[in-house]
Amino acid sequence: MADRVRVRGVTIHRPIIYGNTATVLTPAERETSHYPDHTHRWTVAVRSATSAPDSDVVGGADDLAYFVKRVTFKLHDTYPNPTRNIDKPPFEVSETGWGEFEIQIRITFVAESGEKAITLYHHLKLHPWSVTFPLPNATSVPAEPEIPSPENAAKLGPVHSWQYDEIVFADPFQNFLALLTAHPPTPLPKTSLSKKPIPFHMSNPASLEASLKGGVPEFTSAMEKEEADRLEEAKGKIIKEQERWRSILIEKEKELERLQKLLAPKE
Amino acid sequence: MAVSASDIRSALSLPSSSTPVLSAQPAPRKSQGQATKKPEGISRELYALIGPSAPSLVAHLAKPRLKQKPNLSSGGKVKWEWRTFRHGARTDSLQLGHWAKATDDPNADKDWTTEETDYLFSVVREYDTRWYVVHDRYEYLNGPARSLEELKDRYYSVCRKLIRNRPWAGDEASKAQLLNSYQFDKDRERMRKDYIASLEQRTPEEIAEEEALFIELKRLEQNERKFKKERDDLLRTLLGIDSGLPDIVAEEDGPSALSAEGFKKKKKNANEIDIPPTPSNIISLGPPPPKRAQSAKSIAYDAQHCIIRVEPPPSAVTKVTHVPVHLRSFKLPAPKAAILPKVTQALTELGINHTRMVMPTRENCARLESLIEASTALIDTKKIVDRVEQDIRVLRVRLGRQSEGPEEDTKEGTPMEVEGGADGEGEVKPEVDGRAQSIVSTRSGRGRKQAQSRRSISVSSIDTSASARVGKRQKRV
């Protein structure tokens, strides 16, 4: 019974990534496919954030099965049995298709956790990230990126769209905490050992160039540092601006006071 | 079916609480309390429950009763006596006699003579019912020594009799009220004074002992409460809803989320039992509370296992709301809805997307939060500046000094100039379509002349036609 006690004041998290990889089907593959209109092969997955060395997939160094019981991927309704339950690792679904859509991912945890399932969404990305995405200093809204022809897309290589996140357990049960601590996650490498590119993310448009180096991307702690730096820099700018506006305000208030004094004797 | 406490006592053959068998000391007081009559308008059962501390309101709210019929038949014998009297219309000393009711005399009291009562009333009148003075000055020749209580009792009882028997102009209620105000309980008053005197005469040792006993009593009561609570918790844990304890059902929709969570679990799996984390449980079963000062080793351990330790708020130990499992990005900080567009705009210009992060780690989330806070403060400042500017414009117009060019040197076009208060005030902006461009170079309300002279600085600067607004303001003023 002692196992069913919550350890108060403890928050434990596990870094995961979720997203998809997509490749263009070769003409030969399209010939043999049941669906001649399908253009891409894609894999949507939930994995641990750290990539295994010498692996050709993004993330997945650790097995998440010790705390994840099931991952349910809800595909577009046009797929046969759109709800795919994956009960053992790897938690992923591979399919072919021609369009992008929103995938609902439902992660169910092992019974020891005593937690409900969580639901997240991933936009299946098939077409290459647009180069015309607005850079920080650009002012115009970019036009809808054109979908490149299959030949061009194939040249660009597989498309990766991954989101890093952390599953946070607050006040875990004693036995669940023990279970988690028995499986410490592999920490993210500082930088990619095998010179893999960083994954592109919409919130960091500048990362597009670096992600275009080719190859399978890998999550690194440098990415975290990079985002921290961006946030700090922005905050610095905001604070500077705030100081400037404060001095403006003080001046304006002096002016207002002067005017009020001028006006006062008349009334 | 209502059962009074005394019924239960008799059923269990317990001694009645009114019988002074328990102890000799508090007996007089107790019997006094028991002797008080049940006030009218309260049912017997209710009185048994609440005891003599019945709210006085009930007595007042009691239904007005019909006047009782005069009891003519069974009133017993009326005592008459032959009295002599002097007729008021005669000047000679003729003694006439008549029969008069013996009890009719308001002064009838075996202890008090009419003369002494008259003397009492004269003294009371003289000293304006200041009883201590009255008692001090009361010297009736050849009369017995009177205590203060006796004087008061006599005075009030005579007053009551007079009120009752004299014709009354007002209604019954006011008469009853007046009668009530002349109530006096001699014994009770004497006892009260004796009690106060005895309190005053306690020795320091007795006071100390009494206090010690009082503390001991409190402690015992507390222990009992604690014991009962623990017993309830245990029952609840072992029997769940079957224990019949009221809290379990109440908790279902109560704010205590801990039990709500526990309850759900019970539904899911009846065998699985969630222990409510009472302090005793934590102490006996839980792990030792995390210490503030962590060793380097434990920090490394926590980092390896992604553990964050926070000191749980001590008050929330029993009533803690469990935060369910979530993705870190679910709890991204969000600006207030009112200024959301402005914050988004400002942050977008700085290349930050506050709704989605690349690496939503704990540290980065905290950084984003402080960034949003700073932006909010900035936008607030700008709003105030806008308002002050508006006030300045209004004052200028009122001063009739529009011809004087307003000084706007401080407003240089810089990145991140976000529209301030002018937007919020919902004023008419004739050139709204010009606003579609980046806010980077947009100015909020500025003087007309200045705008003309400044327009060369930034091509896209937009004049929000201050002149039109000033006109509007003026009308309002």
User: Helix count of chain A?
Assistant: 5
What pattern of helices and strands is seen along the backbone of chain B? HHHHEEHHHHHHHHHHEEHHHHH
Distance between the termini of chain B: 74 Å
- Helix amount of chain B: 40-55%
The DSSP helix count of chain B reads 19
| Largest interface in this structure | A-B, 77 and 79 residues
> How does the helix and strand content of chain B classify structurally?
mainly alpha
Sheet with most strands of chain B: 2 strands, antiparallel
Q: Give me the Rg of chain A, rounded.
A: 25 Å
Roughly how much helix do the residues of chain A carry, as a percent range?
Answer: 25-40%
| Radius of gyration over C-alpha positions of chain B, nearest whole angstrom | 44 Å
- In round numbers, the mean pLDDT of chain B is 68
What does this protein structure show overall?
- The complex is a heterodimer of chains A (267) and B (477).
- By secondary structure, chain A is α+β, with helices and mostly antiparallel strands.
- Chain A has two domains: 2-219, Immunoglobulin-like (Sandwich); 227-266.
- In chain A, 26% of the residues lie in helices and 25% in strands.
- Chain A has helices at residues 27-32, 150-156, 174-181, 207-211, 221-263, and strands at 10-24, 40-48, 68-74, 83-86, 92-97, 102-109, 118-123, 159-170.
- In chain A, the strands form two sheets. In chain A, strands 5-2-1-8 form a four-stranded antiparallel β-sheet.
- In chain A, a hairpin with an 8-residue loop joins β3 and β4.
- The longest helix of chain A has 43 residues, at 221-263.
- Chain A is extended and about 90 Å long.
- Chain A starts with 9 loop residues before the first strand and ends with a helix.
- Chain B has 477 residues and is mainly alpha-helical.
- Among the domains of chain B are: 5-59, no CATH class; 110-198, Arc Repressor Mutant, subunit A; 330-477, no CATH class.
- Chain B has helices spanning 5-11, 27-35, 44-50, 56-61, 114-126, 131-137, 148-165, 172-181, 186-200, 204-239, 246-253, 257-268, 279-284, 296-305, 340-349, 362-399, 421-424, 448-454, 466-476, and strands spanning 80-86, 95-101, 307-309, 326-327.
- A two-stranded antiparallel sheet of chain B has the order 1-2.
- In chain B, α11 (246-253) crosses α12 (257-268).
- The longest helix of chain B is centred in the C-terminal third of the chain and has 38 residues, at 362-399.
- Chain B is elongated.
- Mean pLDDT of chain B is 68; it is low at 17-35, 247-293 and 402-477.
- At the A-B interface, β1, β8, α3 and α5 of A face β3, β4, α15 and α16 of B.
- Chain A: This is Protein AF-9 homolog.
- Chain A: It is found in: Nucleus; Cytoplasm.
